[in-house]
Hints:
The chain is globular and about 75 Å long. The termini are far apart. It contains eight helices and eight strands. Strand 4, helix 6 and strand 5 (170-183) form a beta-alpha-beta unit. Helix 1 (2-26) crosses helix 7 (190-204). The chain has helices at residues 2-26, 31-46, 50-65, 107-113, 115-120, 159-169, 190-204, 212-221; strands at 78-82, 96-102, 123-130, 144-150, 170-183, 210-211, 224-233, 250-258. By secondary structure, it is of the alpha/beta class.
Amino acid sequence: VSTQSTGRASVYATATLITLRMVPVMLRKTAVIKSVEFQNRYFHRSTFHPDLLKIKSNMLKELKDGSHNLPLYNEELVLLELNAGGGSNLSYYPECRYIATDYLEDGKEFMEDNASNMAAMDITFDRYLHTIPDRLVSVPDNSVSAVICFHSLCSSLTLALAVLEIRRVLMPTGKVYFLEHVSTSKKYSRLWLAQLNFQIQMYFWDCKFVRGNALRRMFNQSGFKVQQYNEITLDFTGMQIKGPMTSLASHAYGVAVKQ
C-alpha cells in the first residue's frame, strides 16, 4: 500500500510541476507575458546591454577600418546578417552589398524603412529573406564575404545545419562574426537554475539555449577555424530584465574563418 501511495504521490507531484511550468505558456497571450516576449525579441535584435555593444564594436571595427582581409564577390563586399530585425547593426558596416534575414516577417517592414539610411551609408540593400539560419536556400554557394550572426542560432531548428549553411554561403576565407547567448557551464548556479526553469517558455518564443563548447566545436568540425572565442556573463543589475530574460546572461562570442 505504501508503495502505491508513494507512486501516486510522485505522479501527482510531477503533474503539478509540469502544470506550474506550463502556466506562462498557457498565459502567453496576456499583456504581461506578451510584454516579456516583446522584450525578448528586442534584446535579441538590439543586443542593447553595454557589454554586448562594446563586444560588437570591437569585433566589427575591422569592417570599417579595412583590416578585415575578406574576399570580394564580383568585386563587392557582401555581408549577410542573420535575424537582422530592423537593422540595428547597420552603423558598424562599411560600403557593401547587404542581405538581411529574419524568421520574424514583420522585420521586413522595419528594414525597408531603413533603406534611405543605408543609401546614405553607401550600403546597397540587396534583399530581405524571411527564413531561419539553417534554411538559406536562396543564397548561392560561395557568394558572401562575411556572416553576422548575433543572437541568431538559438532560432535555428538544428545548430549543425545552421553552421553548415553559413559555411556553404561563405566564400573561402570568409568570416562569421558570432555573438550568442549560451547555456552556463556552472551547474546548480542561480543562472543554471533559471535556464532550466525557463527553457520551455523560451522554446515557445523560438529561442533555444546553445551550449558554448558545442558552438565552438561545431565550427571547428564544420570546416572553420575559430580565430577568437570568449565567454561572458552579463550583469543585469539596474536593468529592466526580469523573469525568463534573466536566463540569457551567459554569452559566447568570436570570429571563425571558412577554410
